[in-house]
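Practice set, problem 2.
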Amino acid sequence: MAISELDLPTGVVAHSLADAKRMAEVMADGVAKVLDYAVHTHGIASLAVSGGRSPIPFFEALSRRELDWSRVQVTLADERWVPPSDEASNEALVRRYLLQGPAAQAQFLGLYSPADTLAEAARHAAEVLTGLAQPIDVLVLGMGEDGHTASLFPGSDNLAHALRDDCPEPCVPMRAPSAPHERLSLSYPILASARTQYLAIQGLAKLDTLRDALSADALQMPIRAFIHSPLEIYWCP
């Protein structure tokens, strides 16, 4: 099956790239263009990215793009509730691969805090996010083979609340089926209001997941909540 064969909603655009390196470069070009436009139009640009290993080539490519990085804010779509010194930290990943060279001038707004409880950490992250230029200019999401995105996992007790159109919290405590279980995720309203939204996936298994999500309920496959305009999907084998 090719991504062009999917019956995507109106306004959702799909791109098929030859490999991960090419996809990273094309996405970096597009994201840099949007961020540059936001800087020149609004004086500041905001970018929210996802963690995991797959985005590393994209992070490295974007870090090489010429931008007024001092006017760019970077945050995370989600975070594992572990300190940045932990190998599982998304913040550590972004600092290691994106906030390098000229991109080190960007302002990073992290979600993690060493709070007493996950709920308290989510409240602290919400306070941090008051400093983020909103709506977010560029959101880059990934997707798991179970249909989760950010840290919005099927079966999580807080999922229905986090996916509410009117969810009042910008950041919500979530639990994942895999370790580290305790997570923080931006909620649906702050994610779905992003001006430009990308979904990056690799491999035939993820393509099958995306196909299944098109006819699924968002509580079973949370990525379904985000498959609407404006969304650009980038895929490579």
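Problem 2, part (b): a different protein.
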Amino acid sequence: MTDPITTVNPTDNTPIETYERMSDAEVKSAIQACHDAFLDWKARPLKDRAEVIKTIGQELQNSQEEFAQLMTREVGKLIGDSRDEIALCAQISQFTAETGPAELADEERDIPGGTGVVHYSPLGVIYGIQPWNFPAYQVIRYTIANLMAGNGVLLKHAENCTGSGLFLQDVLERAGLPKHLFTVLRIDHDQSDRVIENDLVRGVTLTGSDGAGRIVAQKAAEQLKKSVLELGSNDAYVVLDDADLDTAVEACVTARLYNNGETCVNGKRFIVTAKNYDAFVERYAQRFEALQMGDPTDENTALGPMARTDLRDDLHQQVEESVKNGARVLTGGEVPDRDGAWYPATVLVDVKPGQPAYDDELFGPVASIIKAEDDQDAMRIANDSRYGLGGGIFSKDEAKARKLASEQFDTGMVSINGFNIAIPNMPFGGVKNSGYGREHGGFGMKEFVNAKSVYMG
């Protein structure tokens, strides 16, 4: 038996809780129980499923403070961000309950000699592998959509937020979800591969790095199972010649530091035209330099710890390698001498290809500022990435910005003159090495269904 899972508070590295891993037999039994629950659930009318999902949203609201405090203990999120995360999960549940029955209803079409019916039939048990940076949201994002579609759901959560996964399972069951229909698996990577291989598992979804995505996608493909991947990114926020600098600086600071900088759709590369570069850099660096790290449970704290010390160390290594290859630190960039996974708000300039700060995802409070010659050059640099999840454009000419976002920006999502994380009625997902498939906006409900054709003669 492998070692148990111990969760740790990243503010001071003190242990929180220890959980025993499941045996192979327990995992197999859990998958069977989830499948059995699915067989009953898929027969429930759409409106009945929607009522349960609506109640899940209400139960999330009722549990907001307790859940938020747990997430902050486990991963170091600012307490306000944790509360906002639970509120977003409740909104997703409400949106899905309201729109799901219509989205998944049978569609009738004229066919020669009769009527065609398109029926959205659930596939079965869907397996989700999720990260630690949004312990509730990442799970709710795929779970609620698949429950609405009639599927069963398995979760392998990141080990450092095991408590949050189990808390969410309790919330769903308290809201009336049938037992076993949503099940947390406390397993290691080898066991995870065997879950994908299990015949009762019909689809796989992962949120994580592009490296993890390749491994999971390959494993799913070997089993001829569909996968949905939401992977990393180094999102570019482009400040054009005619941008309002006050708006751009404010939004770009938030875009980099939201959730302690540990968000897939955080702004990471800030591409500023020569006209605005010097002024933007000065204001931006001043804002970062003034930020103090502090207790994430204190509502006045602006920057908490990272989620784990190994993640902090990896980030610092990326900063050092970027500097070795020509980047320059304006503020931050040093590991503080204190217990916990702390890293200061850091600004890098002179960022160029060949540096991690340009090429890779820096998952933490480090901003890369890049000078562009003009608007056209800025868009070229923005698209000069293997990733394509989100991004942003700042311009006083909203029509121009919309045209650039729609026709030139090679990403799944673009914010204009602001910063957005996720909105329930808009699709969420990326292109290139940021993955494939869509969640939210009704799209996620149809990722793991059989669009079945019924020909009525």
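Answer key, part (b): The chain has two domains: 4-231+433-456, 236-424. The longest strand covers residues 114-122.
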